[in-house]
Amino acid sequence: ESAIDELATLVRAFNEMTGALENNSRELEVRRRFTEAILESIPTGVISLSGDERIERVNRALAGIFSEETVANATSLEHLFAGESLAAVRSLLKRARRRGAAATQLDIQRPRSVLHLAVTVASLEEQRGFVLVLEDTSDLLRAQKAAAWQEVARRIAHEIKNPLTPISLSADRIARRLTRLSRALGSSD
Question: Cα–chain-centroid distance for residue 147?
């Protein structure tokens, strides 16, 4: 490399390029680990799909939405969704392919309950695939329903209490008049 001819210039350029590639490779690895750490720490299920609907990667939170066994054995969308749910997810994939992203709410019937999911699909560039984000909104919906029922109960109590107040006041007035009337009649004897 100490030479000054074209071969030395080529060797130096090659060494610089190799060093730059190693730096880029290290930086990409750091970014990959960072992204994986984020995906594993969020409570929302994330699925990476290929263009032909094969599952390439999932995060740990998906096992909180579906069973661990189901997630471990899932290699395509059919292993996670069925019937109308599968059709709805495929429709989202088509919409995301056209628009870049799409979202919907899905209700999946389970043996003893209904799973309410907010599903968001983002299309990756150049038809490489999709990222699905699944959030279990069942607890949120239960809390909203409970709050709505509390509001209904509060309003019903108010509506019942509203007519009772004038009735109670009228009864008090009648009782006072009867007391005065009985005193007046009692003193006139």
Answer: 19
